[in-house]
TrEMBL record, chains A, B:
<comment type="pathway">
    <text>Purine metabolism; IMP biosynthesis via de novo pathway; 5-amino-1-(5-phospho-D-ribosyl)imidazole-4-carboxylate from 5-amino-1-(5-phospho-D-ribosyl)imidazole (N5-CAIR route): step 1/2.</text>
</comment>
<keyword id="KW-0658">Purine biosynthesis</keyword>
<dbReference type="InterPro" id="IPR011054">
    <property type="entry name" value="Rudment_hybrid_motif"/>
</dbReference>
<feature type="binding site">
    <location>
        <begin position="182"/>
        <end position="185"/>
    </location>
    <ligand>
        <name>ATP</name>
    </ligand>
</feature>
<feature type="binding site">
    <location>
        <begin position="266"/>
        <end position="267"/>
    </location>
    <ligand>
        <name>ATP</name>
    </ligand>
</feature>
<feature type="binding site">
    <location>
        <position position="107"/>
    </location>
    <ligand>
        <name>ATP</name>
    </ligand>
</feature>
<keyword id="KW-0436">Ligase</keyword>
<feature type="domain" description="ATP-grasp">
    <location>
        <begin position="111"/>
        <end position="296"/>
    </location>
</feature>
<comment type="function">
    <text>Catalyzes the ATP-dependent conversion of 5-aminoimidazole ribonucleotide (AIR) and HCO(3)- to N5-carboxyaminoimidazole ribonucleotide (N5-CAIR).</text>
</comment>
<dbReference type="InterPro" id="IPR054350">
    <property type="entry name" value="PurT/PurK_preATP-grasp"/>
</dbReference>
<comment type="similarity">
    <text>Belongs to the PurK/PurT family.</text>
</comment>
<keyword id="KW-0547">Nucleotide-binding</keyword>
<feature type="binding site">
    <location>
        <begin position="152"/>
        <end position="158"/>
    </location>
    <ligand>
        <name>ATP</name>
    </ligand>
</feature>
<feature type="binding site">
    <location>
        <position position="213"/>
    </location>
    <ligand>
        <name>ATP</name>
    </ligand>
</feature>
<feature type="binding site">
    <location>
        <position position="190"/>
    </location>
    <ligand>
        <name>ATP</name>
    </ligand>
</feature>
<dbReference type="Pfam" id="PF02222">
    <property type="entry name" value="ATP-grasp"/>
</dbReference>
<comment type="subunit">
    <text>Homodimer.</text>
</comment>
Length: 357, 357
């Protein structure tokens, strides 16, 4: 058995958005303090963390001071610059590890990795220019989707190619960045598995949630998902295979397409995941606490679901619905404390608990 | 309809213990920030509040600065000195109001108030000296319990009088403080109602919890309590009567004895209450959020219980059980981040969720 991080220890979190905020609260619930590193001023996590370091990721002095004040480092997003990670890793353990980050930062590395451990992904091919795009389209066909290999999320850095005439415009949207062409996958539904692996190698997974995206952004997650028992088992085993192959420590979100031919891995996120927010009101140990448990060397929670939940994101002006939602029975609101509601900005979410009564 | 406190507003909390800590987290979940006023250094709430003011309650300058930084003031304990409240009240609204505080700060005022609205309490009489104690014992009989009228909690400032020969020692334990002699109540069980009243006067109550005390300190709360339907209804109506009579805004804990002759009010606490911690894992809106909702002018959550829960306090060395509890299914830990485990000190609690499956 590994050592549990002593009570009162400090967990460093890279990134101060809503995920960092909810990680901070979970860490406090287990008796830990948190320091947050975030370039932007007044981030959501600042309201609940013991300390916030406001500095860019190329400020070596700030990174050193941050590392000096914490016992272990984790992160709320996968696009932390490599040089910052190199420096931090020389000072404190980073969990999940660098390999998980490297794989998930690059769509081609990610798909190579997933294929390499025997999992199915969408057909894909690297694209740098007109010529490689032409070759990729010949191989994959249309419709297809062109994505930058790095730094894309919530539908940004993506362009659909419905037929070959769309190709030049799609390539222009990549703005010269390395890209990957992915074939469309015909799926009946999208699900995700939120899984965790502890320091000792134990794995625990939550029941898969069924996701609905609107405009490339997650809108709702419903648990339980509509899956056959076989699909449910496959989804969880597949997630466990990914975690074990990466010697992973922490929570990971694994997005899957359910197809007639089986499960296809869409992408992985080496962190707590929006599609796991339902666990806050469906489980004794939610994904945020599960992540902190893993990072702090605790035994994992078992992931049992005590209630069915529908999670709905509150995006942009959805925040105006809060007074009405506040009056609903069995609706648990989670707001992120963001001052300004911009279009597409995640302002909060609501977990609607379905009781059997 | 009243105004809801705008998102991003600051709620001031007097007291930085575990109740203040959990209030801070709940406020954050609704998009608010918190500032905590606490004389002691490094209080539990400091880890999750945006700001902490460390100063004694007689530091007028610190109180003024604190009030200047917040939009509304609430508190986690009822023994805030009167002069501090006078100053704060001149600067910002205090919720719950001063009357609730005055009543609950003094056992005689409290019992006079409760009797005055037609509720049953233990028989009681004021005691200042040998003579008044003698008269009180003649009226109430033995066994009885002598308590200081103010500042008692968790069994402190109390002395049992099993027969008259115990009287001098009991009085000595009061150290000259005004006291009240209370008759013993023969009860089958102790329950408490956690109830809330909003700014508009709406009242909501959670299902009563059944409490077991050990050594004068709450050990467990079990929900649902073993009550007849009539007792359950009486308990909730009685709590509502108290809240309405005080024009109360916020959450109150009402401790009751269940007797053959009906419900007897033991005491009231004008704040979130240890016996309401189960709501964190049994309800969509827990007592901490309910209190913040009331204080911030939100509609109240309806208090529906989605799961049955047994809450167990982790006191002193109970903290050593944490690694074992961490392995239990459906056990939700809540630790307070206190550095040192002293005998009788509340270090955390665990909510064990009972699933029907």
């Amino acid at each position: 058995m590994t050592e549990m991080l002593p009570p009162g220890s400090v967990i460093g979190i890279l990134g101060g958005g809503q995920l960092g905020r909810m990680l901070s609260v979970a860490a406090a619930r287990l008796g830990y303090r948190t320091h947050v590193f975030e370039p932007a001023a007044n981030p959501p996590a600042a309201h609940v963390a013991e300390k916030v370091v406001t500095a860019p990721y190329d400020d070596a002095e700030a990174l050193r001071a941050f590392a000096g004040g914490v016992d272990v480092i984790t992160y709320e997003f996968e696009n932390v610059p490599t040089a910052a990670l190199d420096l931090l890793e020389s000072l404190r353990p980073i969990r999940p590890n660098r390999r998980a980050l490297a794989v998930s930062q690059d769509r081609i590395l990610e798909k190579d990795f997933l294929s390499g451990i025997g999992l199915t992904t969408a057909p894909y091919a690297a694209v740098d220019d007109d010529e490689s795009l032409e070759a990729a389209l010949a191989h994959i066909g249309t419709p297809a989707i062109l994505k930058t290999t790095r730094l894309g999320y919530d539908g940004k850095g993506q362009a659909r190619i419905m037929d070959r005439s769309d190709a030049p415009a799609a390539l222009a949207e990549m703005r010269g960045a390395p890209a990957v062409l992915e074939g469309f996958v015909t799926f009946t539904r999208e699900v995700s598995v939120i899984a965790a692996r502890g320091l000792t190698g134990e794995v625990a997974a939550y029941d898969p949630g069924e996701n609905v995206h609107v405009g490339g952004i997650l809108s709702t997650t419903t648990v339980p998902a509509t899956l056959t028992p076989g699909e449910r088992t496959d989804a969880v085993l597949l997630a466990a295979r990914i975690l074990n192959a990466l010697d992973y420590v922490g929570v990971m979100g694994v997005e899957l397409f359910v197809t007639a031919g089986g499960l296809v891995v869409n992408e992985i996120a080496p962190r707590v995941h929006n599609s796991g927010h339902w666990t806050q009101n469906g489980c004794a140990v939610d994904q945020f606490e599960q992540h902190i448990r893993a990072v702090a060397g605790w035994p994992l929670g078992d992931g049992t679901r005590h209630s069915d939940v529908v999670m709905e994101n509150l995006i942009g002006n959805d925040i105006l619905k809060v007074p009405a939602i506040a009056r609903e029975a069995n609706a648990a609101l989670h707001l992120y404390g963001k001052a300004e509601a911009r279009a597409g900005r995640k302002m909060g979410h609501v977990n609607r608990i379905r009781t059997s009564g």
